[in-house]
Amino acid sequence: MERYKEEKYPIDKFELDITSSHYHHALAFPRIDNWLDIALQNGVKDVVCKVPSYPFPISAFLASKSLRELVLTGCDIMSLSLSSDHQRMNCRSLSNVRLDHNVLQTLVNCCPLIVDLMIEKCSLLTKIELRNLQNIKSDIGEIDASNLVSFDYVGYEIPELKITNVSNQLKNSQTYLSCYNDEEWFCKLRKFLSNLTSWSQVSLHIGKCNDINMKDLGLHPIPQVLVLDIDMRFNDVRTCPNFVDALLWSCHPKRLNLLSAVETITCFMDRLKNSSQLKAFKFISENEHVEVDREDLAMMTRTQIDRIFFLLDW
Asked: Do you know which InterPro entries this protein is assigned to (predicted)?
C-alpha cells in the first residue's frame, strides 16, 4: 500500500476481509486506517471491508466523490456525522454492522440517489425508515425483527422483504405505497403485508384503476390492517368492484379511509357491504365526522371529491 501512496497509483477496488483471522484485534486498527486512507486518497471506487468491530471511517468515505459502492461487514459506523453528503453511490451493503436508527437515517439522507441498499443482521437497529430514496430498487432483503419496535416503509415499489422472528415489541408498522393496479401488484402487496400478522396503517395512492382478474391472484396469508388509507381521486367506477375485491383479498382493514369522488365512494360502500358489517362516516372537519348511508351519498354531487371512512367488522 505504501507503494500505491508514493506512486499515487489509482485504485478501483479495495477489499479487506479478515473475519476469519486474529488480525482484526484493535491493535491492528491504526494500520487498517492507514490502508483505507491511501485508498481514499487514490480515488478508490469500490470498497469492501469485513473487519469485526472495526470503527470504519464512514464519514470520510461518504464525502468521497469517487466512491460508487460500499460493502461493510462487522464494522462499527456509529461515528457517522451529519455533515457527509454523497449523491452518486450505487450500492451499499451492511451486514452485522453496528448502527442504530439515527445512523441509518443519516446514511440514507447522505445518499438520496442510491440504487441498492442491503441491511442484514444489524442487531442494534430497532426502527427502519426509508424515505426520499428516489432510485432505490426496493429489495430490502431479510430483517430479523426480534428487537424491532417500529417499521416504516415509503416507496413507489413494493419491496421484496422477509421479516423473521417478529416479537410483541413491534408497536408501530406503517407503509406508504403508490398503486399500479394489476394482478401482479396485488399479489406483491399481499405477500409484502403477510410478513406481519397485523399493520398499524397501510396507505395507498391510486393513480388509475385497471380491470383486475381475481382468478389470477395467488394465495398468501391475509394480514390484518388496523387502518387502510386510500387516496383515489378518479371518477371511473367501471372497474371499482374488482378493485375493492382485490383490495380485500390483499388485507382485512378494521378501518378504511377513502378520499375519492362520491360515485367511487358509493361503489366502495356497495361492495364492502357484501363482505362485512359496515358503518360509514363523513368527515365534517379534521376531528369531526357524522355517520352517513347510501341515501346521504345519493344527495351529493357524484363527481365531488370527499373524505369518508368505513368501520368494518369481519
From this structure: At1g61320/At1g61330-like, LRR_At1g61320_AtMIF1
Q: Are 100 and 80 contacting, i.e. CB atoms less than 8 angstroms apart?
A: no
Residue-wise DSSP of the chain? -HHHHHHT---SEEEEE-TTSGGGSGGGHHHHHHHHHHHHHTT--EEEEE-TT-B--HHHHHT-SS--EEEEES-B-TT--TT-------EEEEES-B--HHHHHHHHHH-TT--EEEEE--TT--EEEE-S-TT-----EEEEGGG--EEEEEESS---EEEES--TT--EEEEEEEE--SHHHHHHHHHHHTTSSEEEEEEEEES------GGG-------EEEEEEEEE-----TTHHHHHHHHHHH-EEEEEEEEEEHHHHHHHHHHHHTTSEEEEEEEEETTEEEEE-HHHHHTS-TT-EEEEEEEEE-
What are the residue ranges spanned by the domains of the chain?
1-144, 171-314
C-alpha cell belonging to residue 5 = 501512496
Q: What percent of the chain has pLDDT over 90?
A: 26
pLDDT at 93 over 80: no
> Is residue 179 scored above 80 in pLDDT?
no
Residue with cell 376531528: 287
Q: Between 1.10.1740, 3.40.50, 1.10.12, 3.30.950, what CATH number should domain 171-314 receive? A: 3.30.950
Encode pLDDT of 127-146 as tens digits: 666 665 555 555 556 676 77
